């Protein structure tokens, strides 16, 4: 039974900003407050990065055609989906966080309206550059493109978004998010 308006926290940020670390910490810190959705991706599970459900192109398209995704998009040569189970969780009054896409944000807002709160994981440009080079997954040209894209999106943060700086320690980032989450949930409860 739904006893409050549930919130869909839509996590976005540049590649290298630390979204995967933040999501992992959220799973550990708030298992009773926040459902963390897995993404379905046409990328091998062994490829590193986030804890996702790996699907072949064919499997992904079959699920998409069957309406099993609440959201889906293409980026970086892969297909990404968020399962329709998030709609069930939201309808039951459970707050949910998804690892979204900056390019898909407007479509997600159209679908979920005021129930969607963007959460931007931001990182100082010098820190982001250092992280991208350290992980060694992209060429220098690809890293420069990622840095340019990160700067463009940094200026496009929605007014109702929560911005969390992940330039320092993960502990500090989670303290920032915890304060913002508490403020957001208490604001909704009083509405």
TrEMBL record:
Keywords: ATP-binding, Kinase, Nucleotide-binding, Transferase. Pfam families: Guanylate_kin. Residues 6-182 form the Guanylate kinase-like domain. SUPFAM superfamilies: P-loop containing nucleoside triphosphate hydrolases. SMART domains: GuKc. Its EC number is 2.7.4.23. Pathway: Metabolic intermediate biosynthesis; 5-phospho-alpha-D-ribose 1-diphosphate biosynthesis; 5-phospho-alpha-D-ribose 1-diphosphate from D-ribose 5-phosphate (route II): step 3/3. It is an enzyme of class 2 (transferase). NCBIfam families: phosphon_PhnN, PRK10078.1. Belongs to the ribose 1,5-bisphosphokinase family. PANTHER family: GUANYLATE KINASE-RELATED (PTHR23117), RIBOSE 1,5-BISPHOSPHATE PHOSPHOKINASE PHNN (PTHR23117:SF8). This is Ribose 1,5-bisphosphate phosphokinase PhnN. It comes from Photobacterium sanctipauli. The gene is phnN.
């Amino acid at each position: 039974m739904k006893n409050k308006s549930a919130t869909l926290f839509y996590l976005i940020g540049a590649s290298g900003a630390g979204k995967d670390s933040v999501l992992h910490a959220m799973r550990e810190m708030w298992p009773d407050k926040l459902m963390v959705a897995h993404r379905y991706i046409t990328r091998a599970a062994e490829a590193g990065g986030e804890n996702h459900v790996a699907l072949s192109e064919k499997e992904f398209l079959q699920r998409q055609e069957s309406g099993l995704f609440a959201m889906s998009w293409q980026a970086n040569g892969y297909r990404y989906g968020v399962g329709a189970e998030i709609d069930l969780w939201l309808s039951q009054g459970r707050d949910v966080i998804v690892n979204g896409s900056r390019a898909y944000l407007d479509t997600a807002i159209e679908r979920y309206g005021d129930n969607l709160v963007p959460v931007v994981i931001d990182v100082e440009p010098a820190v982001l550059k250092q992280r991208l080079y350290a992980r060694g997954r992209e060429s220098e040209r690809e890293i420069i493109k990622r840095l340019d894209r990160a700067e463009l999106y940094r200026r496009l943060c929605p007014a109702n978004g929560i911005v969390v700086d992940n330039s320092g320690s993960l502990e500090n980032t989670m303290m920032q998010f915890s304060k913002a989450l508490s403020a957001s949930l208490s604001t909704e409860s009083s509405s």
